[in-house]
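so my prof wants the structure for this chain in the tokens format not the other one, which i didnt know existed until like an hour ago. anyway here's the sequence
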Amino acid sequence: MSASMSDDARWLAAAASVAARARPISRPNPGVGAVIVRNGKAIARGWTQAGGRPHAEAVALAAAGDAARGATLYVTLEPCAHASERGPACADLVGASGLARVVVGCMDPDPRTAGAGISRIEAAGIAADHVPSPACENSLSGYLIAKRLGRPEVTLKLAMSLDGSIALGSGESRWITGDEARAHTHAMRAKADAILVGGGTLRKDKPLLDVRLPGLEARSPERYVLTRGQAPKGWRALPSPKAITWMEGIQYLFVEGGAGAAAAFLHAGLVDRLLIYRAPILIGGRPGIGDFGLPSLDAAHGRWRFCERRQLGSDTLEVYEAENPSGK
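here's what i got, hopefully its the right format
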């Protein structure tokens, strides 16, 4: 990798880090991050604001002011090229900015922009490059899945003992994991647009599914229950995993259980990411996942790619991503 390409990758990763501030408050728009760089130093940054406007590029350009002239803009997603009642197209704002160069980490699959954003910037006399960035794609994963597959990205969370149990035989399940793991779960909730449990879990445990981290209480996601019946007040009913295509404006769905809901989403091939919190205990209780229809043991292999492991107090978190998500 050349020095310039290495710098591009580094600044795009920085833009992806900035984009994390936009999730999930930017919905229904994608959470985009932007960094403006001059002489190897960041002079401004921006991320998509609450409700989707203003966009990251507009925030960064406003922060940079005249200093943007001759600088380079790094942005996680191709600047939008379509007109909107809520604000000008970012490709036009960028084209009039006096920037010397724009580097895009991910092309926009939205047909209203797809390629047109970069073309419009180039037509304004600004160099524009697409430098594929795994960090940018990861930061936009929910948006990309929503555009490509017509559904939200699904993360399945499981808190289990070493022997894969989520409760004692009696049903007692509070608490399997410790404070650090539970706090991490709340942080993951805060990054989701919606959260879901099965009907049995709702009736038995009556979970709040809110975010109880100081300063993030307002980030509590919309609550769904997997049921063909009526949802209680404050909840929405989802009759089947495949009905997630009906979840308008939802890019990130967090499935918290129980075993039946986990099995239903796995059986439908609709789990993109696994978060497995494992406590160092053996309880010989109720399994964390029900039967989800694997035809053979061979069929279990090659489905999941290990991504990350971290220690959370005495518990361990392992993250896996689906090798071949449904519809890809």
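also thought this was worth mentioning. Residues 3-19 form the longest helix (17 residues).
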